[in-house]
Amino acid sequence: MKSLTEVVMPKLAESLVSAMIDRWLKQPGDSIGMYEPICEIITNKVNAEIPSTVNGKLVSILVGNGQEVPVGTPICIIETEDANAGSTTDAAHAAVEPVGATLPVYGSQKATNAAPMAAEEPVEGDMRHRYSPAVQRIAAEQGVNLQQVRGTGLGGRVTRKDVLAFVASGEQPVAGATAAATPTAANAVPAAPVVPEQLVRTTGLHLSETPRIPQIEAESEIPGRGEYFIDITPIRNAIARNVKQSVTEIPHAWMMIEVDVTNLVQLRNKLKDEFKKREGVNLTYLAFVLKAVVNAVKDYPIINSTWATDKIIVKRDINISLAVGTEDSVATPVIKNADQKNIAGLAREIDDLARRGREGKLTMADMGGGTLTVNNTGSFGSILSYPTIVYPQAVNLTFESIVKRPVVINDMIGVRSIANMCLSLDHRILDGVICGRFLQRVKENLESFSIETKLY
User: Fold this and answer.
1) 431 classed as catalytic
2) pLDDT in tens, 358-374
3) Which of 93, 126, 328, 427 is the catalytic position?
């Protein structure tokens, strides 16, 4: 028996009430498998895919490319063979996978159907049997019976981590692995593919890669005139809207300070090769900068605040937003509880967020909760910048390019490695005195790094 199922725009996050359809991956008449992406959407924070919650055939597309869609609005209709094949409410509350996301493989044994867990007493807000498409996809690939997995999410909901932990515990054999297994290593975790090392720039002290060039999405010639049009992409439109809100509502002011990072350069040069071999990621200057910043915020917590009309809200958690540039946009993923991480931990977080940001694999969870922003503008040679504050934060701090300059020390001239740090501030909350002291503390922290500084 055939039936029609509506797929609705899911609720992506508590603070988001709508999203824009970027493009449809399926067209009317196409067959669709369960969990298969049907379209790409754009929010103010990340790009994401909406997966199908049923098997069937796409009958009708209700929302066109470029249209803004409120949460809960039907976006397409899928014809299914079973009248009970899917529920439209599941899609509205499902977690959305980022574009290009991949899922790990944890083995290659065949699955066995174990008896489900004993029924538990229902509780208020019970969500134990509400599974997101991401959870269902992993369970299908790994051969996991979700009835056996105890959920740790809200209302007892099963999360991705719960499924992966269940697989790792060995309580149920695993199926669905795509990697080939040998008789002697049936349960071995597949080795990570070897990625060839990319060439990096050699000019400058901390340029790590060639700057990416924006790609023109679409253009049209104007007859008889020496110019052309470039269509505004949904991401660029979202950036324009957010930047306008920031500069309209926040009275920006800014200041700059010089930092002598000669000792830091020597320290990094000493440790970077060993760190790369040990951790598999680059030891960048930004990790040291973040450590200096969070230690300064502890001394001046008002920096970590937001304006709330009749009060100032000071955040206890120090969550640093990083500005990560892609070909045509800038994302600001967040390092949560940055003050609780050592330099090595910060370096790992920076590498992970920057890589996934460039690959378009950031999730909504990666983007929320930032309390202040740090931007490594020196990575492309800038020596002075005036950053826009990420609304509703109070500051945006940039670390500029490290350059060798002659300086006077004890009435003698020496060559030192110098970098500028520029701070944009919300003048409703902060004034020059407190920000000047904050920058001085950051400077002291950076200049206190020595050849004996430990990363762990």
Assistant:
1) yes
2) 887 888 788 889 999 99
3) 427
